[in-house]
Amino acid sequence: MSAALRVSIGQHSDCGRKAVNQDFHGALLPEGAMLARKGIALAVADGISSSAVSQVAAQAAVKSFLTDYYCTSDSWSVRTAASRVIAATNSWLHAETRRSQHGYDPDRGYVCTFSAMVVKGRQAHLFHVGDSRIGRLGGDCVEPLTDDHRVVLSAEQDYLGRALGMAANVEIDYRAVDLREGDVFVLSTDGVHGHLSGRDLARIVASHDDLDQAARHAVQQALDQGSADNLTLQIVGIESLPSPDADEFADHADELPPPPLSDNPADIDGYRILRTLHANARSRIYLAQPPDGGAPVALKVPAQDIRGDKAHLRRLMMEEWIARRIASPHVLKAAPAPAQRRFLYTVTEYLDGQTLRQWMIDNPKPGLEQVRDLVEQIAKGLRAFHRKEMLHQDLRPENVLIDKSGTARIIDFGSTRVAGIAETQSGADGHILGTVQYTAPEYFIGEPAGANADLFSLAVIAYEMLTGRLPYGAKVSHLRDRKGLGKLRYTPASDDQGRVPAWVDAALRAALAPDPFKRTQLLSEFTEDLRRPNPGFDPHARPSLMERNPLMFWQVLSAVLTVAVVALLATR
After folding, report:
1. For residue 339, what is the DSSP state?
2. In this structure, are residues 452 and 460 in contact, taking their beta carbons and an 8 Å threshold?
3. What is the mean pLDDT of residues 307-312?
4. Bridge partner list, 410
5. Digit-coded pLDDT (tens) for 173-223
6. What gap in Å lies between CA 54 and CA 33, rounded to an integer?
7. CATH code, domain with 329
8. Lowest mean pLDDT among 64-73, 456-465, 468-477, 563-572
9. Which of the listed residues 331, 349, 367 is the one where a domain comes to its end?
10. Phi, psi at residue 195, to the nearest 5°?
11. Cα–Cα distance, 105 to 421 (Å, whole number)
12. For 255-289, what is each residue's pLDDT tens digit?
C-alpha cells in the first residue's frame, strides 16, 4: 500500500487591539475514503472593518466551505466542487446584505476576504478572493502564491477591489501547486502579513517544532510590530504524500478474488446465475437472480485472461461506482449492492433489448427521424455524464442498448474518465481506452479531451446510421500530431437519393471537425442542428485551402509574397 496523505497544522487567531475578532479560520481532516476522494481543506476569512456584521460573513464563509465542499459529488474535480461552494456562499452573503438596512452599501454589509487550500493527492488547490493570503515556505522566505485584490489609488489611499459578498457574482482566483514532502504553506490575514515580512515568517516557522507555537509567536510578533488589525495565521506542513501511482480502486482491486467462471447455474454471494448474456476477452456478463428474489440483475465478472491485470480490475470496480452516481433514464443503473461481497464483480440492472449495433444491422436504412430520436436519447445520457465531470470515452454502437420500449441507454463505463479521480493520478499512460473508429482525434495527438470528444463519437454514430460507413474510417488512429488534423478529409454524408439533406450533412461536418476548437461544442447544439437548418452553416461551402491543404496554402502565399516583393523592387 502507498503512504497516505498526512499533514500537520498549526493555527492561531487574535482580535489584537480591536474589541471584536472579525477573522475566522478552520480546517477539516477526514479519514479513509473521504481523505482520498476529497482531500484536506483549510480556509481563512477576514471581515472588513467598516462593517459591523462582517464577522458573521467570515464565519459563514469558512464554515460553509468546510462542510459543503465535502457534500459535493465525488466525481467532480476539486476546482469545480470548491468553486461552486464559494460561489453559492457569495450569493448568500450578497443577498443578506441586500435584505439588510444597508442593502446598497457593501462597505457595511456581509463582506469578507477568503482564502482556502485543499490538499488532495499530490497537489494543493488554492482558492482566493481579497487580501488574505496563501504562501509557501521556500528557502529562508515565505513566497506569496496569491495576489492581493487591492486597488491602489495613491501611496496613502487604496481599497479592497474584490471580496465575498461584495457583488452578486464573484471572480475566484484558482491555482494548483504540485507538492513535495516537507513543504510548508502559510494562510494569513493582512493583520499578520501586513506587519511581518516573508523572511520573518520563515524564520519563525523554522525556529519552532510545534506549528501551533509558531503561529502564536508570529501573531504576537506582528502585534509587537504595530499591527492594529485582527490577526490569524494557519501553518500547514506536508508530512507524507501518496505515491504517484496511488489509486483508491487499484489499491483495493486485488483484495477480493474474481468469482469462478462457469456456464452452469451457480451461486455468487447469494446471486443465482441463470445464464450467460455476453462474453468477450475482457469480461463475462451473467443474468442472475438476486438473493431477495427481486428482478433479475446483470453480474459482470472479469474474464480469465485479465484476472492478473490490476488496471483492468480497477476499471471494472469503477463501473459500478460510476453507475451509482449517475441518475438518467438513458444510462445503465446500478442494482442494490449486496451486504457483503466475497468476490470481485459489478451488479447492475438487467436490460432486455438489443445493442445499437444489432439495431443498425436490422435497420440498414433508418429514417432521419429515427436517427434523430436515438441521437437525442444518447445525448441526454452523455449530458448526465458531463454534469458529473465524467467523459464516457468509449461511445460506440456496441455500448448503447435499446430496450423493448425503444429507450436507448449508455452502458459499459470501463473507459470513463472521472475528473475527481483523474486529478489524483500521475498522468495518462498514452493508452487509448476507446474504440479507435469512434475516438476523437485529440486523444491520438495527446491533447486534453473535453465534453465535445464524446460529442465527436456520437456524431460518428449518427453518420454511420445514416450512411452505413464511417466519416474517416481508421485514418484518425494514424494521427500523431496536430499537423495531421488538416490531412483528414471528411466524406459528405449526402447522397443522390436525398436521404441526408445538405443542411444535415453540414451539421455532421461541424460535429466531426478534427480540431476540437472548430468542432460543435455542445450536445444541445448538435441535436438542434440535426432538427433545424443552422443559418451559420453554408451546406454548399467548400473548406478553405488552409483547411484542405495547409502546406499548399503556405506555399501559394509564399509565392504571392515573392512576386509582390520582386514587383516592388522592379519599380524602384
Report:
1. S
2. no
3. 83
4. 331, 400
5. 999 999 999 999 999 999 999 999 999 999 999 999 999 999 999 999 999
6. 35
7. 3.30.200.20
8. 563-572
9. 349
10. -130, -5
11. 43
12. 788 888 776 667 888 899 999 998 888 889 999 99
**CA distances in angstroms from 441 to 314, 465, 516, listed in the order given:** 26, 20, 8
Residue 447: all three cell numbers together: 491533447
Please measure the distance between the N-terminal and C-terminal CA atoms of the chain and give it in whole angstroms.
Answer: 78
Task: Record the cell numbers describing residue 1, joined without a space.
Answer: 500500500
**Based on the domain organization, do 280 and 380 belong to the same domain?**
no
Q: Quick check: 331 and 409 in contact, CB under 8 A?
A: yes
State the amino acid at position 236 in one-letter form. V
Question: What CATH number is attached to the domain comprising 92?
Answer: 3.60.40.10
| Amino acid, single-letter form, for residue 101 | Q
Q: Is the pLDDT of residue 46 over 50?
A: yes
Claim to verify: residue 344 and residue 441 sit in the same structural domain:
no
- What DSSP string runs through 88-155? HHHHHHHHHHHHSTTTT-GGGSS-EEEEEEEEETTEEEEEEESS-EEEEEETTEEEE-S---EEE-SS
Same domain, yes or no: 403 and 537 = yes
Q: Please tell me whether residues 150 and 77 are part of one structural domain.
A: yes
Q: Is the pLDDT of residue 245 over 80?
A: no
| CB contact at 8 A, 480 and 486 | no
| pLDDT the model gives residue 539 | 55
Residues 313 and 440 in one domain: no
Residue that finishes a domain, picked among 349, 374, 399: 349
506 and 367 in a common domain: yes
- pLDDT of the residue at 154: 81
pLDDT at residue number 203: 95
CA distances (Å), origin 447, targets 382, 441, 444, 513, 517 = 21, 9, 8, 15, 12
The set of residues, in sequence order, having a beta carbon less than 8 Å from that of 93 and lying 6+ positions away, is 57, 60, 61, 109, 110, 111, 112, 164, 165
Specify the 3-state DSSP secondary structure of 26: strand
**Ramachandran angles phi, psi of 68, nearest 5°:** -70, -35
Q: CB 339: neighbour CB atoms within 10 A?
A: 8
CATH of the domain at 362: 1.10.510.10
Q: Which residue is it, cell 453559492?
A: 88
Q: Tally the domains of the chain.
A: 4
**For residue 434, is it within any domain?**
yes
**Can you read off the three cell numbers belonging to residue 14?**
487574535
Beta strands in 214-315 (DSSP E): 231-240, 267-268, 271-279, 283-289, 297-302
Q: Please work out, in degrees rounded to the nearest 5, the angle formed at the alpha carbon of residue 227 by the alpha carbons of 221 and 230.
A: 100
Give me the residue label for grid cell 510548508: 184
Cα 548 → chain centroid: 34
- One-letter amino acid identity for 152? V
List of residues 6+ apart from 315 with CB closer than 8 A: 414, 415
User: Is residue 324 domain-shared with residue 405, that is, in the same domain?
Assistant: no
Q: Is residue 452 part of a domain?
A: yes
What value does the mean pLDDT take over residues 55-61?
97
CB distance 54 to 22 below 8 Å: yes
Residue 1 lies in a domain: no
Residues 147 and 105 in one domain: yes
Across the range 396-418, mean pLDDT stands at 95
- Nearest partner of 218 among 199, 202, 201, judged by Cα: 201
d(CA 388, CA 137): 35
Q: 235 lies in which domain range?
A: 6-240
